[in-house]
Amino acid sequence: MHVRLLRLLRDEGPLSRAELAARLDVPRPRLLAELDRLVAAGQVAEAGPAQSRGGRRSTLVELNPEIRYAGVDLGATSIDVEITDGRLEPVAAYSEPADIRSGPKATLHRVNELLAKAKAEGCFSRLDGIGIGVPGPVSFRDGLPVSPPIMPGWDRYPVRELLTREHGCPAVVDNDVNIMAVGERHGGVAHSVDNFLFVKIGTGIGCGIYLNGAVYRGSDGCAGDIGHIQVDPAGPVCTCGNHGCLEAVFSGGALAREATAAARSGASPALAERLAANGAVTALDVAAGAAEGDVACIQLIRDGGRRVGAVLASLVSFVNPSLIVIGGGLAQLGHVMLAEIRSVVYKRSLPLATGNLPLVLSELGSRAGVAGAALLASEIAFEQAS
């Protein structure tokens, strides 16, 4: 019962004992005994009197205001850290460029330094749980990455064990797109949707799968790895060693490669100008060029959107979700890409599956990952609460 009680206080805020007993459908004496135990354990605190409804005012209870969780989102090229309170409201946030290929020791050392900085700045005295997402397949049960294509040195590295030992609190490790899906369901556009797909388009491409109100991870933790579905047998070599994967033809790196070719050939004046000024062009330069009306930039985005749409159309027919959310760094390509993805999905999938299928951009944006990691941290902390 204690996990359900703590979740209720996390998601709803302060509640009276009577409300808790009714919502949890448990006898009041049992609830009071459980609350006394959680107060003694430092999980729950009294929150003052409830609004008067006539007669004696009841006392509200809430999660201990001192509770703190850390949500960490490791991307291929970035580290994002957020400290939240027990209700998952942000207390502090840190974000900086990083290279996941520098290996687990250097990357996790930097994560620990950022957490130490947050502690020194008074954000927390101790952490109650840590959630971390990494850009590769994860054994959720064992808390470690497994054969990640773009993370040399991380295979079976004991991430959960090290964070638990370093910070003296429970930790949980998941794939980066899964934590984004969790964040979007808790506080974004997918709020309380039980069956949806969260598609991350960034340095890589992945898909978080929510089925019947829970993340579907597959038997080995690599469900949703749609970036390695082949879309062009004659396409470029992918980081996984195969040819023409979705990720190899449309992702941050692939788009930068195509953009550089368009700039050098003169097909895109906007990109040629940026290449001359900066010495390189990125996916974000393509987005800026498209916003200015550059035809080649718009075409690059449409081509990529069409590739993603073709893969998603198959998934829609297979999974029948009620929502698709697009997030990740390349979500900044915006509505040109979204319109192309929508067009292909609606054209190629069964009418029954797409008749009521919103396909939208993430509401949380870059916060989706850290928000989901913090929620997973709260879940593991609740389960281990004595």
TrEMBL record:
Coiled coil regions, renumbered to chain: none
Superkingdom of origin: Bacteria
Transmembrane segments: none
InterPro entries in UniProt: ArsR-like_HTH, ATPase_NBD, ROK, ROK_cs, WH-like_DNA-bd_sf, WH_DNA-bd_sf
Pfam families recorded: ROK
Signal sequence region: none
Family: Belongs to the ROK (NagC/XylR) family.
Record's protein name: ROK family protein
Organism of origin: Hamadaea flava
